[in-house]
Structures are given as C-alpha cells and as structure tokens.
Amino acid sequence: SKPLADGCYHVLLDAGSNKGVHGRFLFEPEKYPKAKFLDAFNKYFGPIETRRSNTCVFAFEPNPLHREHQVATMNAYKAMGWRYYYMPVGVGDRAGSIEFFRNNVSTAGAAHEDWGFSTTNMEPNNPINKQTSVKSDVIDFAKFVALNILERE
After folding, report:
1. DSSP assignment, residue 73?
2. Are 45 and 55 in contact (CB under 8 A)?
3. Quick one: DSSP state of residue 147?
4. By three-state DSSP, how is residue 96 classified?
5. Is 79 helix (H, G, I), strand (E, B) or coil?
6. Model confidence pLDDT, tens digit, residues 64-111
7. Do the Cβ atoms of 43 and 54 come closer than 8 Å?
8. Which residues, 6 or more positions from 57, have their beta carbon under 8 angstroms from its beta carbon?
9. CA 23, CA 25: separation in Å to the nearest integer?
10. Residue 137 backbone phi and psi in degrees, to 5
C-alpha cells in the first residue's frame, strides 16, 4: 500500500501528543505567538505559506480522553487540505499492548489534561488508579517510519 506520507517533504512525528498542540503550533502559528517552538518550526519546516501544503503530522496518542479532540483537529485540518494524522496508539520498539495509569492525584492530572498518563503507576495505594487504567495498542515505531515515511515519494 501507499505510504501515508507520500507527497510530504517534511514530517513531524509527535509521540505522546496529548491534544495535538505541537501540530497546531506547526500549522497555526498565528494562534500561538508565544510558543517556544515557532523559531524551530520556521527553521526546519519552512515558512507557513509552504509547510501547510508540504508537511505531514503524525500525532500518536494512546490516551482515549484525547480522542475526541484529536479527531476534531484531524477532520478540521483535512477540510483545509492539511495532512494531520491522529494515531490512537502508543509507540514502541515492537508491536503489542501496554497498560497506562492516569496518576491524577499525584500529578494534578485531571486539571492538566492527564499529564500524569504514564506506564508507571505512581499511585500504587490509590485503588482508583488501577481501576481506571487503560490498555492500549502499541505499534512498532521503526516499522511505521520505514513503511510510511522512509518509503514516501
């Protein structure tokens, strides 16, 4: 099958993308004038006038709490002709599955968009943390890159 990044000169891989803010910085810098990444994005991805048409973003985020927002972003960008791909999986050195923990008490995660979402159970004495754990598929990241980015035309 055809590589997902065909036609993209630049590619941004955002592993653990949360709500996809880095992709938004890349495609909509005018909305984030204080973002620290803007200079780097301009340097490595080129001016906004061209990068919206020649860049692909792959946003990998296994946390299902971010799915709705990520899908909405992907669909909105697709309507504008921008190539933003939300991938609801974790990445690793081999395919499989993994358990994530919310860790919302110790990290104030609920107030910070699940920043504590981790493979480490930082709250082993909190029964809610284990009850609300999430199992996620994990893709072989090197294989994904080889098939979808390195083989692009």
Report:
1. H
2. yes
3. I
4. strand
5. helix
6. 888 999 999 999 999 999 999 999 999 999 999 988 777 766 555 555
7. no
8. 11, 12, 14, 20, 22, 23, 26, 27, 83, 84, 85
9. 5
10. -70, 150
